[in-house]
Amino acid sequence: MTAREAVERFVSDGDTIYSGFNIISFALTNEIIRQGVKGLKAVAGSVTPNVTIMSIDGNVDRIETGYLSGTLRSKPFQEMMRDGRVKWNDYTNMTITLRLMAGGLGMPFICANSFLGTDYLLPETMNHSRSLQEDRRREDGSVAPPYAVINSPFDGRKALLYPALKPDVAIVHCQRADEEGNVQVWGPQADTKWGLWSSKNVLVTAEEIVPRSVISTEPHFTIAPGFKVSAVIHEPWGAHPGGLNGYYRADRSWYELTGAGMTTWESAREYLDEWVYGTEDHSEYISRYKKRFGEELLNSLRVKEFMGPEQPARYGWR
Amino acid sequence: MTTEHAAPGEYTPAEMMIIATARQVRDGESTIVGMGPPLLSAALAKYHHAPNMWYCTESGPLDYVPTSRDLSAPLGIADHSLTEGAALSGDMVDALGAFVNGGWAQSAVLQAAQIDRFGNLNTMLAGTFEDPTRRLPGTGGNADIGASVQRVISTMPLETRRFRERADFRTTAGYIDGPGGRAEAGLAPQGPNRCATTMCVFGFDTPDGGLTGSCEMVLDQIFPGVSLEEVQAVVPWDLKVSPDLGYMDPPRTEELELLRHLDDGGNHLRPGRY
User: Fold this and answer.
1) Hey, how many other C-beta atoms are within 10 angstroms of the C-beta on B119?
2) Which residues in chain B are contacts of A88 at CB distance < 8 A?
3) Residue B216 is part of a domain; what is its CATH number?
4) Would A138 be classed as within a structural domain?
5) What Cα–Cα distance (Å) separates residue A254 from each residue in A47, A275, A305, B121?
6) How far apart are CA A270 and CA A278, in angstroms?
7) Minimal CB count within 10 Å: which of A83, A121, A133, B69?
8) Residue A55 is assigned to a structural domain of this protein
9) Structural domains in chain A (count)
10) Which residues 255-284 on chain A approach chain B with CB closer than 8 angstroms?
11) Can you give the CATH number for the domain in which A109 is found?
12) How many Å lie between the alpha carbon of B18 and the closest alpha carbon of chain A?
């Protein structure tokens, strides 16, 4: 499947989309923008600059996250958070991950003590004027809180409940996958595994497509099994400008070179027109990047020293 | 071996802050290290005096053991280099869930935009919630860590806009409103332990682990060349001063050299950042 087909088929206006803390699929991000999907709610432990990019034309207009990573350098993004074009509720890195876990495990909510004793428990924080009250409206018209303090029925102590998150769709980039959609990832994994398990449809771009035999000799690297995955797309450099452990480092010159920091509305427009709408797909985006800034730049990001097993783990049973 | 110290003018206040923060990190302790300058301070501690600390970050790697051939501090909490020499490369449920909330992280090093009299941290906004003068990135893992870790070391430059009688927004629980505040909120009694700044290091008045004492920030050590009056002029409340107030040693030459090497390229301490 191509990124275009995957987004056409599995991403709809108004969906809740998981796009995580790291190993971000910029290939799918850009395709969502090209197709003009509107009104998505982005959820992740931390949201990253791909969410800034998706907010400019209203692809994303709601956010639930613990951290705005690199997104606030954009004045347009800050402006939209202030005037309510982007709505949000704040959580934490762990509580978003646990909420995804609860969604993946089929639990209605999960317990964590993270906000006890903080101003997140003030009513004006939970239901501020740009908060996601509409998303929390119950059938009887009342508004559910974003989290709630209870006294534990077991020992009476204070406990804080957070509702499960079940995104409609997850997008992620991975080191390798096979054609059945078995997804393998290594390196710091943050919220990824539970982002995939909790989402109805999982769209994965893979740096490499490998045979099933490669997957099954190291099955401990699989974070989502094929039956959980709706689409696998082969996209080399699919995480660019982000990095991929064992393949390439994050491209720290990208912001300045392309204007993707989106510090002004003009630079945001120019970036989108040239690098997103002006490219057919991710492979054209990468070839334009090479042409414009030289192949050496991308090559310099490639990982050159690898760490492999000194004594490989061997499975065996007889 | 003689211990040589850097002379005044040979180091910046920001470098002194990083070194003072590193000096609070203990060998053998399991530590969760937060975003930003804490990554540099903890790396300095690991190379300098705490080779057996457990350097862990919230994205999943536990017990990062950097090799001496690549002496540069991680740039972020999900930096690919953090899997180097690691004992475990997991995810946030492992790191913030089991390790931190499960009570296995003995200390934490965190940066924040503001701290208040009782050690509550703010990484959310300046001003008021409805009309902030500045929106900040949010808590990240700080709230998760502050709720569970019993020895929190925070770090930030000593500036009046950062040191508040009450933080503009409390993202991370310190002692909340004073003695017993944490217990009343449903948290374990102990929390903030140190705050290292560009001029001094603060402790907290918690003789009984957060249940008694005033639980206020207490000036503990002043840096060379800084006076008590200068610190008091920045802090906007009636600051408590330790009866054993001391001067912190200036950077040792070896600490300073190591720090500059670890921050190769000025990624953490680039000009204008502090």
Assistant:
1) 27
2) none
3) 3.40.1080.10
4) yes
5) 18, 11, 23, 33
6) 10
7) B69
8) yes
9) 1
10) none
11) 3.40.1080.10
12) 23
Q: Does A313 touch chain B (CB under 8 A)?
A: no
b/e code A168-181 from CB counts within 10 Å (16+ = b): bbbbbbbbbbbeeb
pTM of the model: 0.97
CA-nearest residue to A159 within chain B is B186
pLDDT tens digit sequence for B215-271? 999 999 999 999 999 999 999 999 999 999 999 999 999 999 999 999 987 888 876
Specify the residue for token string 């310190």.
B174
Interatomic CA distance for residues B78 and A46, integer angstroms:
11
β-partners of residue A209 are A177
User: Which amino acid makes up residue A193?
Assistant: K
The distance in angstroms from the start CA to the end CA of chain A is 40
Closest-CA residue to B18 (of B260, B227, B219)? B260
Encode B72-107: b = buried (16+ Cβ within 10 Å), e = exposed: bbbbbbbbbbbbeebeebbbbbbbbbebbbeeebbb
Q: Show the domain range for A79.
A: 40-163
Report how far residue A161's alpha carbon sits from residue A146's, in angstroms, rounded to the nearest whole number.
9
Nearest to A13 by CA among A168, A228, A203, A173: A168
Which tokens sit at B257?
Answer: 């050299």
**Average pLDDT of the segment spanning A158-172:** 98
Decide if B164 is inside a domain.
yes
